[in-house]
């Protein structure tokens, strides 16, 4: 006599497991279909400048992170530099040499290789500083807007103090204090993390003020009050109810601040408190090339400056499109 199957048994048979796996494909396809049919994707497709900026930024990022495989030289390896190959002009010049397409600097470093490696450092530092500032700003903004009271006063007064001082001054102060307190051997090793913190510290205030304003509005609505009545934990209310309604202005601000973070890193490196000369970012390359600008070696400073302008321009164009696409008044 066949054993009766328990209706509450959740064990999947092979046939049921196959059917379950088969249902995953339509779900994934439906998500992709919703993305293709969304207003944001339609706005992107109908915005030529956004497509151009996204393509340009993707090309720059790919070439930067594939630099070890597509560049003729590792500019960070001092043993590979040859002084007799120094000060070579670009390839289209009569004195140019292959494979130094954009020429070399006074140390024999290939400019194209240095630009691609430097772009990778600038992109990583800019992205990491935005993520760090975003995380701190979101957390403090949610706490200030949701709880209010003394926590709101303390957080916002700290933000007001940071906003009362110039951005670059705070960053220079942080890098100077960190460099002075670290041993000599660790200064160059920790140069990138120090820059990330120096750029993120004065940047979180903008995110915190934006999230605080949205959290104060959302915390007074009925669905938040209902969640409080049924004793839902405060962190769940902030993360699952309030935070999703604050993300539209935050996404726009984070995109635009990405370009500002790259410019801030370049400024600090240009001033000599950023990346060291043996690990040059775009700002370091511009600082080094600026010393030889009036001696005829114009390519040392011009090409890194063009690369920096292209990165910031593409990021700002994407940010402008995103701001218009997410603005309900323009739909």
UniProtKB/TrEMBL annotation:
BP GO terms, sorted: transmembrane transport
Keyword terms, alphabetized = Cell membrane, Membrane, Transmembrane, Transmembrane helix, Transport
Which GO cellular component terms are attached?
Answer: plasma membrane
Q: Where in the cell is it found?
A: Cell membrane
Q: Where are the transmembrane segments?
A: 50-70, 121-149, 161-183, 189-207, 246-272, 292-313
Q: How does it sit in the membrane?
A: Multi-pass membrane protein
Q: Which Pfam families match?
A: BPD_transp_1, OppC_N
InterPro entries in the cross-refs: BP-dependent_transpt_permease (IPR050366), MetI-like (IPR000515), MetI-like_sf (IPR035906), OppC_N (IPR025966)
Identify the CDD domains for this entry: TM_PBP2
Domain named ABC transmembrane type-1: which ranges?
119-319
Top-level lineage group: Bacteria
Question: Into which family does the record put it?
Answer: Belongs to the binding-protein-dependent transport system permease family.
Q: What is this protein called?
A: Peptide ABC transporter permease
């Amino acid at each position: 006599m066949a054993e009766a199957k328990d209706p509450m048994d959740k064990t999947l048979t092979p046939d049921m497991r196959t059917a379950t796996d088969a249902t995953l494909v339509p779900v994934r396809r439906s998500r992709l279909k919703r993305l293709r049919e969304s207003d944001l994707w339609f706005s992107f497709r109908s915005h030529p400048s956004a497509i151009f900026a996204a393509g340009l930024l993707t090309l720059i990022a790919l070439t930067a992170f594939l630099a070890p495989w597509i560049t003729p030289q590792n500019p960070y390896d001092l043993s590979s530099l040859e002084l007799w190959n120094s000060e070579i002009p670009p390839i289209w010049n009569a004195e140019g040499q292959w494979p130094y397409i954009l020429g070399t600097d006074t140390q024999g470093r290939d400019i194209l290789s240095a630009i691609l490696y430097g772009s990778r450092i600038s992109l990583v530092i800019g992205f990491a500083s935005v993520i760090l500032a975003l995380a701190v700003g979101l957390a403090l903004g949610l706490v200030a807007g949701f709880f209010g009271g003394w926590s709101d006063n303390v957080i916002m007064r700290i933000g007001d103090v940071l906003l009362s001082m110039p951005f670059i001054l705070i960053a220079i102060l942080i890098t100077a204090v960190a460099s002075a307190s670290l041993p000599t051997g660790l200064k160059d090793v920790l140069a990138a993390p120090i820059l990330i913190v120096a750029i993120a510290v004065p940047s979180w205030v903008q995110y915190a003020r934006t999230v605080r304003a949205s959290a104060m509005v959302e915390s007074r609505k009925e669905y938040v009050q209902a969640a409080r009545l049924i004793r839902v934990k405060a962190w769940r209310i902030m993360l699952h109810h309030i935070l999703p309604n604050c993300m539209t202005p935050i996404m726009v601000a984070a995109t635009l601040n990405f370009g500002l973070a790259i410019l801030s890193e370049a400024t600090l490196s240009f001033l000599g408190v950023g990346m060291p000369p043996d690990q040059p970012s775009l700002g370091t390359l511009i600082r080094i090339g600026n010393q030889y600008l009036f001696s005829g070696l114009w390519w040392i400073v011009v090409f890194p400056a063009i690369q920096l302008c292209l990165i910031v321009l593409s990021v700002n164009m994407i940010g402008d499109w995103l701001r218009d696409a997410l603005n309900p008044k323009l739909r």
